[in-house]
Recover the amino acids of this structure.
C-alpha cells in the first residue's frame, strides 16, 4: 500500500506540490493524470525516496520513506520518467550489477536476469549494449530492474511513452497480473485512453494540488458525452435534422456536435437516408472529456 500524506515540495520559492494527499490500496491500479508540470514526477520521486519533500510523508506498506528508507525502498519498484543507465554496459551485465545491490549475485543473478528479460520481452537483446537500446527497450529494461525484489508496490512514471502497441498490451497485462497478486500500482500517463483502459481509480493533479480522486466507473458515468459529426454537404436543413437527437453546437461549416448520450449509428443512418455525406462521426466522452472539464481548460 502506498500512502501519500500532505506532501509539499518547494523548489526555491516555487511550490511544485501543495499538500498532496492520496493513497493506492493493495490490489489497486491508480492512474496519475495532470498536464505538463503539474507535479506527477515530483510526487513519484518523493514516493520512491530519491527526492526529499519540504514537508509531509509517504508510507510504503507502513514504512515511512525518509525515516525507514531501507525497508520502504525494498518494497517499491520504480520506473523513472527518463531512466538513466551506464549506457556502455551490456544490458545483462548492468542488470547483474544492479542486482548486486540487493545481494543477488553469480548464478542467482544470471537466472533472475534471464527470467525477467524473458518476462519483459528483451531476452533477445540481453547482450546488446544499453546505448543500442531503443526508448521502448529501455523502458522494458527499467521495468525488469524494478522487478528485482518482486516488490509489493510499483511507481511507473510515463512508462507508456515510447512503448509500441504490443508493449502497451504487455504493460496492461503486467499490471493486471500484479493487481491479482494484491500489489499496489501507481502510474502517471498522458495517454488518457490507456489510463481509461487500465486504471481502477484516477488521481487528478493540477499546478501541484490534487484536483480530484475518482473511480473510473464513476468517471465514465459522469463524463459529458456527445457525438461529433463531419458532413461534406451540409445545407440549411441540417440543424433541424440533428436537433431531433439533442442540442446541437455548430463547430464550423461542416462539423456539428450533438450533446448528450446519443447513438452515433442512428444519427449516421438518418443523415445518409437524407442524402448527406458523412465523412466522420465520433463519440466524445470518457476520461479525456472528464479531465478537460475538470481543469476547465477546454
Ligand atoms: N529540479 C527542479 N527545480 C526547479 N523546479 C522544478 C524541478 N523539477 C521540477 N520542477 C518544477 O516543478 C513542477 C512540477 O514538475 P514535475 O516534473 O513534477 O511535473 P510533471 O507533472 O511530471 O510534468 P510532465 O507531465 O511534463 O512530466 C514544474 O513546474 C517544474 O518546472
Ligand atoms: Mg513528469
Amino acid at each position: 500500500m502506498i500512502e501519500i500524506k500532505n506532501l509539499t515540495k518547494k523548489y526555491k520559492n516555487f511550490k511544485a506540490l501543495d499538500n498532496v494527499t492520496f493513497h493506492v490500496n493493495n490490489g489497486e491500479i491508480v492512474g496519475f493524470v495532470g498536464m505538463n508540470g503539474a507535479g506527477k514526477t515530483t510526487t513519484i520521486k518523493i514516493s520512491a525516496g530519491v527526492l526529499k519533500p519540504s514537508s509531509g510523508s509517504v508510507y510504503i506498506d507502513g514504512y515511512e520513506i525518509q525515516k525507514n528508507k531501507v525497508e520502504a525502498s525494498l518494497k517499491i519498484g520504480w520506473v523513472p520518467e527518463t531512466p538513466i543507465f551506464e549506457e556502455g554496459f551490456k544490458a545483462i551485465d548492468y542488470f547483474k550489477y544492479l542486482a548486486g545491490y540487493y545481494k543477488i549475485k553469480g548464478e542467482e543473478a544470471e537466472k533472475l536476469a534471464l527470467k525477467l528479460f524473458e518476462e519483459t520481452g528483451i531476452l533477445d537483446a540481453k547482450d546488446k549494449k544499453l546505448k543500442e537500446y531503443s526508448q521502448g527497450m529501455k523502458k522494458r529494461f527499467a521495468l525488469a530492474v524494478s522487478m528485482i525484489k518482486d516488490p509489493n508496490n510499483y511507481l511507473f512514471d510515463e512508462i507508456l511513452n515510447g512503448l509500441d502497441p504490443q508493449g502497451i498490451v504487455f504493460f496492461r497485462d503486467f499490471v493486471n497480473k500484479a493487481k491479482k497478486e494484491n500489489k499496489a500500482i501507481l502510474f502517471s500517463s498522458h495517454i488518457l485512453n490507456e489510463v481509461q483502459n487500465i486504471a481502477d481509480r484516477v488521481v487528478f493533479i493540477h499546478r501541484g494540488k490534487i484536483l480530484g480522486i475518482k473511480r473510473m466507473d464513476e468517471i465514465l458515468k459522469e463524463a459529458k458525452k456527445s457525438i461529433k459529426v463531419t458532413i461534406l454537404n451540409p445545407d440549411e436543413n441540417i440543424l433541424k435534422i440533428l436537433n431531433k437527437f439533442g442540442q446541437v453546437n455548430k463547430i464550423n461549416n461542416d462539423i456539428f456536435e450533438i450533446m448528450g448520450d446519443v447513438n452515433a449509428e442512428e444519427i449516421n443512418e438518418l443523415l445518409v437516408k437524407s442524402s448527406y455525406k458523412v465523412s466522420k462521426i465520433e463519440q466524445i466522452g470518457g476520461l479525456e472529456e472528464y479531465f478537460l472539464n475538470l481543469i476547465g481548460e477546454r
Summary: The chain has a mean pLDDT of 95. The longest helix spans residues 165-180. DSSP finds eleven helices and 14 strands in the chain.
